[in-house]
C-alpha cells in the first residue's frame, strides 16, 4: 500500500503499485501508520517528508467499490480516516512536499494540498476535483480545508465549481503548485531538491507544526478531534 | 423591467430599457420572480443576466428612497434576498456586464458565478465612498468572497475606483472581456451553454457553490446542509 524510506534527512512516503491508489480503510490506515512513526518520535533537525506515488496515478480519490460493498453506517470511516490523515500532515514536525507524480482527483487532491509544498508532473496528469462531475457534495471539514488552501476566488471556483482539469503549468500559475517537472523521476528529483532547500531552514520541526496549525486554524479546528486525532 | 428569453437550456434575463436599471422595489421584485422561474423550470440549466443600453445597473433607486434613511434601509433589506437567490440558484450563472455596474448594480454582477464584461466602455464602480453611503454588511461579505486580491479589494472599497472591463479581468474580478455589449452577451451565452452541457446535478451544484462561499452564504442566511444530510445524499447515490 505504501512504503516509508529515508534518504539522508528526507523521508520518502510512496503509494505503491500501479493502481489508482484509491482511499479505502487499508490504504488510509497504512498512510496514517507511516506518519505516526514520524509524529511520535523525535528526529534529527532539518528533516522533511515527501509523498509520492508509483504508476500513472497519484491518487484517484475514495475507493467507491469499497464504499458500495460496505454498509451505510460504515461509509463515514473513510471520510474520518482522511480527516485524520489531514490532521497528521498538519501536525507533522517537518516540512512536507507532495510530488504529484500522476493524476490526482477528488480526495486525492486533498492529500496533495495537505502538504506545505507541491511539485507536480507537467508532461501528463491533472489536478481534478471531480466531485461536481460525479455528483458529490462536501462535508464541512473538506469545505473548510479547500477554502483555506485555495483562497483565490476564481481558482477555487474553477477547481470546485467547474470541476476543471488543471495541468501542472496552470496550477503553478494559479498558486496551487510550487514547481513543475518532467516525468515521474524528474518530479521526485525536483521534490527532493525542494525538500532539501526547505529542510535546511527548519531546525525545530515542532515549532513549524504549531505555526502550520495556526496558519490553517479553521481546518485544524475541524480535523483535530477533541483530545486527539487518531480514529 | 426585465425579460426572460430561453435559448436551448440557457435562460437569458435582460434588464430592459435605456435607463439606469436602478434597483427599486419594482425591479427587485421582477428580478426575483425571474430567478424563481429559472429555479423552477427543469429545462433551464444555466442563467445569463444582461442589460440593455448604457447601464447594467447603476445601483439602488435612491430617487425612490428620496434619500431618506428609511427608504434606503428598505432597499438594502429588499436587495439581500435577491443576492441570496443568485447565490443559491441551482445552476451556473453568468453576468454579461453590458454597461456600467455601480454599487448595488456591481453587487448584482459579481453575485454571478462568472462575470463577462465589455471592455470598450463601462466601469465597475463601488460609488458608496464617493456619495457618502455605508456598505451593508452583506455587500462587504460578497466583495470579500468574490474579490480576493487584497489590493483590488482595497481599490474597489476604499478608493471607489472606476474599473474598466480590461482592468477588472487583469485583477481577477472579470473572467472574460469582450469588444461590445452584443459580443459580451453572445460569449456569456456560449459559456452558459458549455456549462449547461456538463449536465451537473442541480442540487449538487447549489451545494458546492455554498461550500465555495460558506461565509457569504451565512451572511445571506442561506442554510447549508449538515454533514449527516451530505452523507445521506452520498449513500443514496451509490
Write the layout of secondary structure elements.
The complex is a heterodimer of chains A (231) and B (238).
Chain A: E1 2-7, E2 10-15, H1 25-40, E3 48-53, E4 57-59, H2 64-69, H3 76-91, E5 96-100, E6 103-105, H4 107-113, E7 117-121, E8 127-128, H5 131-134, H6 140-149, H7 153-161, E9 165-166, H8 168-173, E10 179-181, H9 183-199, H10 205-215, H11 217-223
Parallel strand pairs in A: 2-3, 3-5, 4-6, 5-7, 6-8, 7-10
Antiparallel strand pairs in A: 1-2, 8-9
Chain B: E1 2-7, E2 10-15, H1 25-40, E3 46-51, E4 55-57, H2 62-65, H3 69-87, E5 93-97, E6 100-102, H4 104-110, E7 114-118, E8 123-125, H5 128-131, H6 137-146, H7 150-158, E9 162-164, H8 165-170, E10 176-178, H9 181-196, H10 202-212, H11 214-219, H12 227-236
Parallel strand pairs in B: 2-3, 3-5, 4-6, 5-7, 6-8, 7-10
Antiparallel strand pairs in B: 1-2, 8-9
Helix pairs in contact in B: 1-3
Tell me the helix content of chain B.
40-55%
Mean pLDDT of chain B: 97
Beta-strand share of residues of chain B: 15-25%
Number of strands of chain B: 10
Order of helices and strands of chain A: EEHEEHHEEHEEHHHEHEHHH
CA-atom Rg of chain A in angstroms: 16 Å
Output the keywords.
heterodimer, A: 231 residues, alpha/beta, 6-stranded mixed β-sheet, 11 helices, 10 strands, B: 238 residues, 4-stranded mixed β-sheet, delta(3)-delta(2)-enoyl-CoA isomerase activity (chain A)
Question: Brief overview, please?
Answer:
The complex is a heterodimer of chains A (231) and B (238). By secondary structure, chain A is an alpha/beta fold.
Descriptive account of the structure:
The complex is a heterodimer of chains A (231) and B (238). Chain A has 231 residues and is of the alpha/beta class. Chain A is 47% helix and 18% strand. Chain A has eleven helices and ten strands. In chain A, the strands form two sheets. Chain A has a six-stranded mixed β-sheet with strand order 1-2-3-5-7-10, with helices on both faces. Chain A has a four-stranded mixed β-sheet with strand order 4-6-8-9. In chain A, helix 3 crosses helix 11 (217-223). The radius of gyration of chain A is 16 Å and the shape is globular. Chain A starts with a strand and ends in an 8-residue tail after the last helix. Residues 226-231 of chain A have low confidence and may be disordered. With 238 residues, chain B is an alpha/beta fold. Chain B is 50% helix and 18% strand. In chain B, strands 1-2-3-5-7-10 form a six-stranded mixed β-sheet, sandwiched between helices. In chain B, strands 4-6-8-9 form a four-stranded mixed β-sheet. The termini of chain B are far apart. The chains are: A alpha/beta (231), B alpha/beta (238). The A-B interface holds A 64, 67-68, 72, 75-76, 79, 131-133, 135-140, 142-144, 146-147, 151-154, 156-157, 160-163 and B 92, 113, 145-149, 172, 175, 195, 198, 200-201, 204-205, 207-209, 211-212, 214, 225, 227, 230-231, 233-235, 237-238.
